[in-house]
Amino acid sequence: MSSVERIAEGTDRSVGIGWPVSIPVLSRRPELAEGAVEEFWLLFSKKSNITREKIRLEKHSILKKLFSAIKKHILWGALMLLAGFPAFAQTQSQDSINQTDLETIVITGQHSAVKADQSTYRVQILDKKQWEAQGANNLADIMSAQLGVNTFEDPVLGTSVQMLGTSGQSVKIMIDGVPMIGRQDGELDLSQIQLDQIERIEVIEGPMAVEYGANALAGVINLITRKESKHPWEAQLSIYEGTAQSFPQYGRSEGTHRYHGNVAWRKGRHSLQLSGGRAYFGGIRTDKANRFRSWSPKRQVNATANYGYAGKKWRLQAGSSVFDERLIRMDSASGIYVPRARDERYDTRRQLHQVSINYQPSKRLHYQTTAAYTAYRRLKNTFQVDLVTLEKLQVEGGATTESFDAKSWRGQLSWKVKPNHLSLQAGYDLRMDRAWGDKVLDGQQGMNDYAFFASAEYKPTKSITFRPGLRAAINSTYPSPITPSIHLKINPFPYWTFRLSYAEGFRAPSLKELFLEFIDVNHHIIGNPNLRPETSRNMQASANWKKLIGRQLVAVELSGFYNRVNDQISLSATGDNQFIFSYINIDKHRSLGTQLKLRYRKGSLQAQAGAAVIGRYNDLNGFESELTTQFNYALNTTAQLDYVWKQPRLSFSVNYKYAGPVEGFTNIGDLDAPEIIPTRIGGYQLANVSVGRTWFDDVLSLRLGMRNAFNVTDVAATARSSAHSGGSGQASIGMGRSVFLRVDIRMKK
Amino acid sequence: MHIKVLTSIIAVLLLCSCFPEDTPLPPYEADASVQQLQIPMATYDDVLNEYTYKHYFYLDLKTGTMQQAERASWDLGFETSAEGYRIILNTANYMQATNLGPVPFDTTLTEAGVKNLTYEFDDPSGAWERSAIGEWWDPTKAEATGDVYVINRGYGPSANLLGYMKVMFESVNETSFRFRYASLDGSFSQTTTITKDPLYNFSFFSLDSGEKVQVQPPKTDWDISFSYFSYRYPDGFPYWLSGVLNNRYQVKAAFVQDTTILFEELTLADTSQVEFTTDLDEIGFQWKAYLFGPPARYVTYSYKSYFVRDTEGYYYKLRFLDFYNDQGIRGFPTMEYVRL
C-alpha cells in the first residue's frame, strides 16, 4: 500500500520521521474524526463489477465439537508428557548449540562461499536451531529479536522492519539471492516469509548495492533454503500450537495452529524435496462480546518443490514455491439497530520459480547463474455481513487488485587470479518489473533494469584484504546511479579483526511512486515519473576480538556506522491546489549508531549480550526547526542464553530484548505552512523462553515455550503539538504473550 | 486400515482451525409509531464507476413525501421576498466565489489568473454574514456596489469541472433581480432579469441554460433536505460533504446534547430542555463519521438524536441508523422519526 493510501486509511506510518508509528491521520486533522463525508477517501476502494456472492456457512457441528475437545487437551497433555516422561534414548544426538559459528559458511555477496570470519564485511548468521528454540515461525518473529532492528505491526499490512535506523523500504530481502517483491507502501510483510524450508539467514547491515542493486541501502537479509538432504530419504512433520495473548484464546478459531510436512529424497546425483504447510492464526480479540479483532485472523498455506542435480563440475537447482494468505479484517457490529458489519478480506499470493546453475570448471573459476520469475498478487474484497441472517454480501466497489511480477536473470563469474592474493568477480543482473492494478497509470506499468557489476578482492599480505567494487546500470525509468564500494579487512594481531567500509547505495522509486494514478472528486494523487532514486552513503567500522581459551570461546565486537540518505521520496501537496499530491525527492535522512556485542561459549552453554545506540536525523522537506537539527538516539539491548543439559536431554533457551523509547518529529502542517511537532514511541521489552527435549534418537522432539513473556502489545505513540490537540496513538509491537508447543517428528534412512 | 488412520489424522490437522464464525444476533424491530425512511442519496455514475450524489432530496416530515432535483441544475439562487436581495451559490456543487471589487465588467480574465485567488462558499448554517456573494446591494441607499465576482462553478454530476464565470449584480427591486454574467474572456456576455416568486425560498438560475429553473418545492412543502454541501472546519480546512440542511422557512432544529437519553424516551416535554436554532446545518453531517480503519468505513451514531420543528409548527424527533443500504453501498442513510 502506498503512503497515499495510508494517509487515506489513517495509519500513516511513514509521515515525516520515516518511522512506522501509527499516529492516525486523525491527529493531523483531528476534526475529521468527528464526522465527515470525505467521499474521496472512499474511492480508494474503487472499481469493481457488480457482483453478488452469497457465501454459505460451513456447518459441521459434530466434528467441530470433537475437534475443539481434542484441541483443549493437546496442550495440557503435552505439558504433562514433557514434565514426567522418562528419558528413553540416550544416544548422542546432534547438538546444534554446540555448533560454533567459527566454521559457519556465508555466501551472500561473496566471490565464493567463505567462512563468516573471512568475509570482508560483517555477516550475521541466524541459525535454524536458534529460531526454533525461540518458537519463531516466520521472518517477523526472528527479526523482532535482533539487536538494532525494530519491527512494527499493522493489522492489515503485517510486519515491517527497520535496520540501521532506516525504514524497511531500504532493506532488501532475498530468497537464495532472488529479491522478494510485493511491497505494500514499500514494506514487505515479514510475517508472510515462512521459515520451514530455510536453513539459515544471512544478515548484512549497510549497503550491498554493488552486488544487489536497488533497495539494498540499509541492508540485506538473504534467506538460504535447504538444498539437499544428508540421507537417502528424510521426512519431517512439525506441529506448532500456540495460544493468543493469554491462555483462554486458544481453540478452533483462536491461537496459532501450524502444520508443516517435508519429504526429502536423494539418489545418486538427483535430489528432490517436497514440502507443504498450513498455518492458521486466529487474531487477537480485545473484547469477548465484540467480533472485532485488533489483530486479524489469517490463514497461510505454502508449498514448495525443489529438484537438484549434481554433475561433476556443475550443479543444477530448480525450485518452485507458492504461498497463499487469506486475512480477514473483522469489524465490530455497526449497532444494535442495524446488526451488520463490514469486513475486509485480503488474499495474497506469492510465487517464486527459479533455476540456478553453479559451474566450476576448475578450482579457480566459478560461474553461477540464476533465472527467476516471481509474482505477487493481492486481492481485496469488502463484505457486508448481516449479523441476523449471517448472510455475507460482497460490496460493490469494495474490491481492488494489485499485482506485481518480476523476471530476473543474474550471473556472476568469479576468478581466483592468484589464489590467496587476488580474485575478481564480474556479473550482470537483468530485471524486468511490472505492476498492474486499479490505481496504476494506464492499468499497467513496467520497468527494466540492466546492471553490470565487478569487484576485486586483493590481499597484498595475509592479514590485509582490500575489496573495491562498482556497479553500473541502465534503467528504463530513472537515471540509475553508479555505485562504488570499498571494503577493507585487517588482521594486524592475533585474535583481532578490523573492518572498514565505505559503500554507496540507492533505493529505486517504486512503480507506485512513479505511476500511481489516483484522481477522484476532490482528490488528486499522481505518481511522479521524474523521480530520482534515493541515494545513500554509508560508512562502517568494526573491531572484533575473538579467542578460544580451552573449551571457552570469548568474542567481543564493537562497531559503528554512519548512514546518509539524500533525495528521500516524500508525498507532498504540490502546486497551488491543496488536493493535488505527488511524490518528490525532498527529504534527507541520517542515521548514526554504535553497537557492542559480547559472546561467550563453554561446552553446551552459550551466552550473548549486546547493546546498540542508534541516532536518527531527518530533514523534513528542508524545514528547519529546533527539533529537526538534532539526532534522536534510541537504545537497544539484547541478551540470549542457551544451555543443553545432557543427562535428561533437556535444552533451555532464553532471549531478551529491550528497545528504548524512540523520539522523532513529524510535520503535521503542509508544505507551505510546516508545523513540526515532536513524536515519541515508548520503549518495550520482549522475551522468549523455551525448554525442549528429544526422544527416540531425535525422532520425536517437543518444545514448550513462551513468546513475548512481558505481554507487549501496543506501546504509546504520541505526537504533541500546541496548536492542534495532537494525536496520541498506539504503535503496535506484538500480539501479547503466547504459550506454544512444538512437536517435530523426524524420520530418516 | 493404515490409510484410514492416516487420512483421518490429516483431516483433523487441516480442518481443526478455521476462521471464526458469527453467532446470529436478534433482529431490530422498531416501535409502530416510528417512521423509517431510507434516502437513496447515492446514484451510480458510469463515468466515475462509482456511487456519487447527484440529487437534492426534499422531505416533508408530516406527509413523508420526498421530492428530488438535479444537483447541478442551478448555479445561483435569488431571495424571493419583496425586500430580499441576497444571493446563494450552489454549494452542493462545491461552488465558490471571489469578489474582484468594482472593476470594469469587461476586464479580460484568464483561468490561470483567477485560479489562485481566495474563494469563499456560503456557510452551511445559512448565516447571511458568511455568504460568498455578501453585501452587493445597499438596501438603505438602494444601490449596488458594482463589484465583479468570479465564480468557480465547482463540480458537475460526474465530478466534471464546470469552470469559471464572472458575474456582476446590477440591481434588485420588489419583483426581480438584474445581473450580468459572462465567461472569463468576456464571451457569452449576457444581461438578464430573474423574477421573484414568494411561494419559494429562492428563484434559481442556471448559467448553462441562461434560464430560471425549478429546483426546490414551494417553501411550505418541505422541511429538511439531503445533499452535498460545503463546510469549513473550525481550523479553516474546506470540505465537500453530504448531510442534512434544513428549510430556511420556519424550520428550527436542535441536537439533543445529552446523548445518554434514549431516543425512545424523548418526549415533547424534552423539546423545552434543548435550544432550537435556525442554523440550517444543525442536523448537518455529524450523525455519521468516516473511520479511517482499516477497514475504512462510515459509522452512524444512532445515539445522536435531533428535534425538528417543521414549517407547520409540529415537533419531531429523529435519528439515523445507518449510512449503508442492504447491498453495503454508502450514501443510503436510514432515518427514523416520530411526530411528538
Description:
The complex is a heterodimer of chains A (749) and B (340). Chain A is mainly beta. Helix content of chain A is 8%, strand content 54%. Chain A is built from 8 helices and 41 strands. In chain A, strand 35 (662-667) and strand 36 (676-681) form a beta hairpin. Chain A is globular. Mean pLDDT of chain A is 79; it is low at 1-67, 75-102 and 721-726. With 340 residues, chain B is mainly β. Chain B folds into 2 domains: 35-69 and 239-339, no CATH class; 75-213, no CATH class. Chain B has 2 helices and 24 strands. Classes of the chains: A mainly beta (749), B mainly beta (340). Chains A and B meet through helix 2, helix 3, helix 4, strand 17 and strand 18 of A and helix 1, strand 3, strand 18, strand 20 and strand 21 of B.
List the helices and strands and how they pair.
The complex is a heterodimer of chains A (749) and B (340).
Chain A: H1 3-9, H2 30-33, H3 39-42, H4 61-84, E1 105-106, E2 114-115, E3 124-127, H5 128-133, H6 139-143, E4 149-154, E5 158-163, E6 166-167, E7 171-175, E8 178-179, E9 198-205, H7 209-212, E10 219-225, E11 233-242, E12 256-267, E13 270-281, E14 284-285, E15 293-295, E16 298-310, E17 314-329, E18 340-362, E19 365-386, E20 392-394, E21 400-418, E22 422-437, E23 444-458, E24 464-475, E25 483-490, E26 496-507, H8 511-515, E27 517-519, E28 524-526, E29 534-549, E30 552-573, E31 580-602, E32 605-619, E33 632-645, E34 650-659, E35 662-667, E36 676-681, E37 684-695, E38 700-707, E39 714-719, E40 727-732, E41 738-748
Parallel strand pairs in A: 7-10, 28-31
Antiparallel strand pairs in A: 1-2, 3-9, 4-5, 5-6, 7-8, 9-10, 11-12, 11-41, 12-13, 13-16, 14-15, 16-17, 17-18, 18-19, 19-20, 19-21, 21-22, 22-23, 23-24, 24-25, 25-26, 26-29, 27-28, 29-30, 30-31, 31-32, 32-33, 33-34, 34-37, 35-36, 36-39, 37-38, 38-41, 39-40
Chain B: H1 2-15, E1 35-38, E2 42-45, E3 50-53, E4 55-60, E5 65-70, E6 76-79, E7 87-89, E8 96-99, H2 111-114, E9 137-138, E10 143-144, E11 148-152, E12 164-172, E13 176-182, E14 190-195, E15 202-206, E16 211-213, E17 224-232, E18 238-246, E19 252-255, E20 288-291, E21 297-300, E22 305-309, E23 315-324, E24 330-339
Antiparallel strand pairs in B: 1-24, 2-3, 4-5, 4-17, 6-7, 6-15, 8-11, 9-10, 11-12, 12-13, 13-14, 15-16, 17-18, 19-22, 20-21, 22-23, 23-24
